[in-house]
């Protein structure tokens, strides 16, 4: 039993459970109306608060730095991913508690900047949960980095729908109590399971079988949640039916521990290999290696803080030496490359516009005449589409990568499709929000799976947590521009009456035409990234995959 609790499989199952409750920021649409009314906010003020939620949920530089620090230590109590989880649990409990106390009237109505601080802290916990689970997962299963990132990001995407099922079962129609649940549930789950999340640093080509088991469970949970959400939209379920459906959901969520037990039982004497690319217990040398340019050249960047030098040689010479296959950047070195900024701009366009959509989906539904139940269903179903994008992009891009296609091509395809999704939302035809939310949700979720994996492949695993969380800053930047400066501004200009509400397609049409144009810009930028890195993937990444499988 003790050996079972110290395997990478039980670590994965524990990480999945933490991810299932870690996406509280995705439920903002459930309590945004009560937050708006209780604090007397207009739409622009509510969008400002939601932007601080996005900043907290996506700016994970601190979590990345903390993860790098505590996992690099070889001894001492404060080492390992549990430290990152504990920091996240603390922020989650404090932030949501004060939001609940403000809405419930236990404390005086805080100034808007203070409420923004509460929201920032509550949502910032998500980056700590996510960084610890995703990066430790990649280090434990680096042969299938896209698959494990897709699983972790997928369950995080599902967490919104899972938490909404908690809301429907425990406090349907009482969003104030739901905020208190958000303060308690993710905190308890993380504190209970964080000792099990550890870095084992080993990977085998045979891991795919059991990773597929986790994937099947994720698909089953997503399908079950979708059925339940649709039933709740069509029927009025009695309290006993809601309890039974929730208990069955818990049984499904317990399945990853069964997969972990099966994987542990199937593993005989260890035949695992440790890859230097994704995990190296020894300190890395100070020299960082740069990107492969389109001409196939390798450059050395920044050997120290006070000087920089460049050395170029042919790609054939570099690839003849296995030591040059290990591309490693710190965050400063990565920011000196063109590829970093191409990825950053593409994420502003893709993540930012997608996040602005979910932040305003309840208000969009209200303006188009959707009922309160339909709007709640849209928020919950968004988690399903978000999951499908996160999981599907990781899984399918792994398959395509092993077949010789560079992973950034998948980003190009999803951003082109995102453009279409925004146009559907802008059109305003009957039922457009259901169709548009499917397209936008899947494409938005895809970016959260593709971006961390591409980051690890281009810039290396050693500082992956810090680098991909730095790129993730693009999401709240884009959300602020689109939610506050475009959607909120145009909405408030269209408001009629004293209730500060707008009705009709005119409220959001222009905003989504603008976001469709921005998504198309992201498609063009991602295409440039694909062109720049296709030789890198052909000569370096695919060579690593071939070496590992040999």
Automatic annotation (TrEMBL):
Signal peptide: none annotated. It holds the Pfam family NFD4_C. PROSITE patterns: MFS (PS50850). The keyword Transmembrane helix applies. It is found in: Membrane. Keywords: Membrane, Transmembrane, Transmembrane helix. Residues 338-550 form the Major facilitator superfamily (MFS) profile domain. The keyword Transport does not apply. InterPro entries: MFS_dom, MFS_trans_sf, NFD4_C, Nodulin-like. It is a multi-pass membrane protein. Its main location: membrane. The chain crosses the membrane at residues 12-31, 51-70, 82-106, 141-166, 178-199, 211-231, 237-261, 340-358, 378-401, 433-454, 466-488, 508-531. This is Major facilitator superfamily (MFS) profile domain-containing protein. It comes from Hibiscus sabdariffa (roselle).
């Amino acid at each position: 039993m003790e050996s079972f609790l110290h395997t990478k499989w039980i670590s994965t199952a524990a990480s999945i459970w933490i991810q299932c409750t870690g996406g509280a920021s995705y439920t903002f649409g459930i309590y945004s109306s009560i937050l708006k009314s209780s604090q007397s906010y207009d739409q622009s003020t509510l969008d400002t608060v939601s932007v601080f939620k996005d900043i907290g949920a996506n700016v994970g530089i601190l979590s990345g730095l903390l993860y790098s620090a505590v996992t690099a230590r070889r001894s001492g109590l404060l080492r390992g991913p549990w430290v990152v989880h504990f920091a996240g649990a603390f922020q989650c409990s404090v932030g949501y508690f004060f939001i609940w106390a403000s809405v419930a009237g236990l404390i005086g109505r805080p100034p808007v900047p203070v409420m923004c601080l509460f929201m920032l802290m509550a949502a910032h916990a998500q980056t700590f949960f996510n960084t610890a689970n995703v990066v430790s997962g990649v280090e434990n299963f680096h042969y299938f980095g896209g698959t494990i990132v897709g699983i972790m990001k997928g369950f995080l995407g599902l967490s919104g729908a899972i938490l909404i099922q908690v809301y429907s079962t425990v406090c349907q129609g009482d969003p104030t109590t739901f905020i208190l649940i958000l303060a308690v549930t993710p905190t308890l789950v993380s504190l209970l399971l964080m000792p099990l999340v550890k870095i084992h640093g080993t990977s085998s080509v045979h891991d795919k079988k059991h990773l597929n088991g986790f994937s099947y469970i994720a698909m089953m949970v997503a399908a079950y949640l979708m059925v339940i959400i649709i039933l709740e939209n069509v029927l009025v379920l009695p309290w006993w039916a809601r309890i039974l459906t929730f208990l069955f959901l818990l049984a499904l969520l317990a399945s990853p521990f069964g997969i972990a037990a099966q994987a542990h039982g199937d593993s005989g004497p260890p035949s695992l290999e440790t890859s230097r690319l994704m995990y190296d217990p020894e300190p890395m040398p100070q020299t960082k290696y740069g990107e492969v340019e389109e001409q196939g050249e390798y450059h050395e960047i920044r050997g120290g803080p006070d000087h920089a030098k460049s050395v170029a040689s042919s790609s054939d010479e570099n690839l003849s030496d296995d030591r040059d296959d290990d591309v490693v950047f710190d965050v400063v070195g990565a920011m000196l490359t063109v590829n970093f900024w191409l990825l950053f701009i593409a994420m502003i366009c893709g993540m930012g516009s997608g996040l602005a959509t979910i932040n305003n989906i309840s208000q969009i539904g209200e303006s188009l005449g959707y009922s309160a139940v339909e709007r709640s269903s849209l928020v919950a179903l968004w988690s399903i589409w978000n999951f499908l994008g996160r999981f599907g992009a990781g899984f399918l891009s792994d398959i395509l990568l092993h077949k010789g296609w560079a992973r950034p091509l998948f980003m190009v395809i999803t951003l082109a499709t995102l453009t279409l999704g925004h146009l559907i939302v802008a059109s305003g035809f009957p039922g457009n929000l259901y169709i548009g939310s499917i397209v936008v949700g899947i494409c938005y979720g895809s970016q959260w799976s593709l971006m961390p994996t591409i980051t690890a492949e281009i810039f290396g695993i050693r500082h992956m947590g810090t680098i991909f969380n730095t790129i993730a800053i693009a999401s709240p930047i884009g959300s602020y521009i689109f939610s506050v400066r475009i959607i909120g501004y145009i909405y408030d200009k269209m408001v009629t009456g004293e209730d500060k509400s707008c009705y009709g397609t005119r409220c959001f049409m222009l905003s989504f035409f603008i976001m469709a144009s921005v998504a198309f810009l992201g498609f063009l930028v991602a295409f440039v990234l694909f062109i720049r890195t296709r030789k890198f993937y052909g000569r370096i990444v695919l060579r690593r995959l071939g070496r590992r499988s040999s």
